[in-house]
Every structure is written in C-alpha cells, then in structure tokens.
Amino acid sequence: MTETRTPRVGQVKEITSLSNPIVKDIKALALKKYRDEQNAFMAEGLKLVIDALDSGWTIKTLIYSKAGRGNAAVEKVAARTVASGGLVLEVSEKVLGAITRRDNPQMVVGVFEQKLMKLSDIAPKGDDVWVALDRVRDPGNLGTIIRTVDAVGAKGVILLGETTDPFSLETVRATMGSVFSVPVARATPDVFLQWKTKTKAALIGTHLKGSVDYRTPSYAGRPVVLLMGNEQQGLPENLSSACDELVRIPQAGRADSLNLSVATGIMLYEARRAALAIGERL
Fold first, then answer.
1. Which parts of the chain are beta strand (E)?
2. Domain that holds residue 164
C-alpha cells in the first residue's frame, strides 16, 4: 500500500486576507450562479470531507484553519487532496468564518465537483424505492429528505421542476453528509412523465384527496417511486393524474398539512418497512 505523505510546505498556500482571489471564488459558491459556473460546492467538517473522498467524489480545494496544522487526520486529508490534484489552503479563522458564513466554523471545508445522476440511467427494480420531489423549495427540507433516504436504504432522489439546489450550503448541511451517498437526478416534469411510462416502478403520490390510507398500497415485491408535492401547493394535476395510486396520511388535529420532510419520512419508512418485512426489521 502506498504511504500517504504529509504535503510539503510549497504544496499548501497560506491565506489570511479576505481579498485574496481564491477566497473570493470560494465565497462566491454561496450563490447558485457561481456554483453552476464552477461546477462546485462546499461541504463543512473533517468527517464529511473524508466520507466524500472515500466515496469517490472529486475534491477541488481543501481549506483548513491554522488550528488544524499538525493534526494527523487533517494532514492525511491534505495529502489525499494534493495527490488527486487539488489545492490545499491554510487560512485564518477570520477567512474560514467568511467562507462558511459562520461565527464558529468547522476546522475543515472541502470544495467538491458537483455530481448528478441522469434520469435515463435510473431503472428501478426489485424492492427499490426512489423519492421524486416536485418543486421542493426549502433547502432544509431537501437536505433532511436526502438524509432520510440514506437512513432507510432507499435508492435516491429525483428533483422535478424548479427546485432548491441540492448543492447549496444549507442543503448540504442538512444532509449531514448523505449528499455524498445518495444519488440525485434532476428532470422537468414532462421528461419525468416520459420516463415513468418506460419504467416498471409503481408511482405512488401523496395527496390530500388521496383515496386510500398510505399504509394500504402494496410496497413489497415491486419497485416504487414515491412522488411528493411542493410545500405550499402539493402535486399539480399533470403529476397526480399520472400516479398509479394516490394516498393520504391521516391527520387527527387541526393542522391542514404536514411538513414535506416529515411526510416524506413517513412514506419512506412505510415503504421500506413493507419491503423488509420478511426476515428483517427496520
């Protein structure tokens, strides 16, 4: 096995100025326009950076605070970054706080290349469960859903229409690292509906006008795509009418709806519970 060596001094750039051009480019990643232009995004925390590297994601830049100097784990990650052709920056706490927009930032931040799956490459089979989200707007909701998909062992997320960015700093934070292990695809509703006609998966949507309880459908023994609507408007007619089944989650109180990530979590756990009912417990 090849030994991972500590980067030499010349391989690490030390930056203390907020006006440094490299710092400005990284700070710009807070805006979707620049994330798309650079095909990049930020992830905070040493563990997340290690998980991303272990999962095969391409790191462009590693940033760590001066407090990380001499830390064996940080130096190992820095060496892996250099070996893969990435840039390593040692920065002041002030610079790190400006980059992350936090008063108490994590010691390590990684800038990674974005990675999206093509919808055409998704072919659900067996007991696969996917989640399709229509125009999800809240990054916290999206990040929590990605994390829940990871937790239950579902296959991935399909984003439909004008959704929030899965690579925004807020979304990535809410995933708690699951952004690196859960495939995400994007598509227009029309392309998604065309794809649906070619897949063997059952499309099960949640709707306040759903005719059956969410626990009624047969989730086991077939691939399933759970279709969840926009936070404010729910599913539009073109998507709801394409569902093989429309279900509802019963509510006993006065609230007229559930939070999207909560509703998605309920659906995911029910679908996976049914799929794993024989010989396993979720």
1. 12-15, 40-44, 59-65, 87-91, 108-113, 129-134, 156-160, 184-187, 202-206, 212-213, 224-228, 245-248
2. 119-275
